[in-house]
């Protein structure tokens, strides 16, 4: 099984700040990496797929990068509506998820 | 609009069986692989498995394949998850998904005596 290690587990940031969340795979996943946003009581919403492709309708302040085993999600100019939990997911070999990052406003 | 609506969750005793359903609308259900994912109360996400568009092939997480069965009825645009011999660690919200881009609202399952 491919393990996904996501960091940090929680993050506090100010409006307008840039935040970065990272995910490390236990082996090369060849950009088979997605990022999701989940708000309380809601289902996950796809943000990024193929490591760096923005899903339809997702604001351009979200971006993904990385390759091999290391990937990251960047949120530029943090907005209040970005307060949520974020998950990475590998889909190179079935699906496994990172442990999540809870993003709060400072 | 793509919609996935799960049902069948609730409180169930350890060792019992439970069948979840997911009714799809807004797209041609029979064209897509479908998946089940669960999220524990501690927010850990776990892929359960998936099923080919025609129902001829399934994949499962190794830890669950002996107790969980995924099936579908394309005529009813419905996906199913049969859970058997449930345990307390199966307590979670269960989501059906169409690939990665569409998730249902989730069905809550609590396993407790």
Please write out the topology.
The complex is a heterodimer of chains A (106) and B (113).
Chain A: E1 4-7, E2 10-13, E3 19-25, E4 33-38, E5 45-49, E6 53-54, E7 62-67, E8 70-75, E9 84-90, E10 96-97, E11 101-105
Chain B: E1 3-7, E2 10-12, E3 18-25, E4 34-39, E5 45-51, E6 58-60, E7 68-73, E8 78-83, E9 92-98, E10 102-103, E11 107-111
Parallel strand pairs in B: 2-11
Antiparallel strand pairs in B: 1-3, 3-8, 4-5, 4-9, 5-6, 7-8, 9-10, 9-11
Q: Can you walk through the features of this model?
A:
- The complex is a heterodimer of chains A (106) and B (113).
- Chain A is an all-beta fold and 106 residues long.
- Chain A contains no helices and 11 strands.
- The radius of gyration of chain A is 13 Å and the shape is globular.
- In chain A, 33% of the residues are buried.
- The model of chain A has no long low-confidence stretch (mean pLDDT 97).
- By secondary structure, chain B is mainly beta.
- Chain B has strands spanning 3-7, 10-12, 18-25, 34-39, 45-51, 58-60, 68-73, 78-83, 92-98, 102-103, 107-111.
- In chain B, strands 2, 4, 5, 6, 9, 10 and 11 form a 7-stranded mixed beta sheet that branches. Chain B has a 4-stranded antiparallel beta sheet with strand order 1-3-8-7, with no helix packed on it.
- The mean pLDDT of chain B is 97.
- The A-B interface holds A 1, 34, 42-46, 49, 55, 85, 87, 89, 91, 94-97, 99-100 and B 35, 37, 43-47, 59, 61-62, 95, 100-101, 103-106.
């Amino acid at each position: 099984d491919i393990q996904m290690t996501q960091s940090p587990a929680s993050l506090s940031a100010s409006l307008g700040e840039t935040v970065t969340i990272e995910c490390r795979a236990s082996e090369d996943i060849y950009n088979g990496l997605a990022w999701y946003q989940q708000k309380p009581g809601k289902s996950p919403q796809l943000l990024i797929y193929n490591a760096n492709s923005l899903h339809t309708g997702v604001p351009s302040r979200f971006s993904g990068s990385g390759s091999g085993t290391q990937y990251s999600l960047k949120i530029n100019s943090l907005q209040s509506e970005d307060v949520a939990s974020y998950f990475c997911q590998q889909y190179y070999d079935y699906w496994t998820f990172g442990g999540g990052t809870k993003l709060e406003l400072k | 609009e793509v919609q996935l609506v799960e049902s069948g969750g609730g409180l169930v005793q350890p060792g019992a069986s439970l069948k979840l359903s997911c009714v799809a609308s807004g797209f041609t259900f029979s064209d897509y692989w479908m998946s089940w994912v669960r999220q524990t109360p501690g927010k850990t996400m776990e892929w359960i498995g998936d099923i080919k568009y025609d129902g001829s092939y399934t994949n499962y997480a190794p830890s669950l394949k002996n107790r969980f069965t995924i099936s579908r009825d394309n005529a009813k645009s419905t996906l199913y998850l049969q859970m058997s011999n449930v345990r307390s660690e199966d307590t979670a919200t269960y989501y059906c998904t169409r690939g990665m881009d569409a998730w249902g609202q989730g069905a809550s399952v609590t396993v407790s005596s």
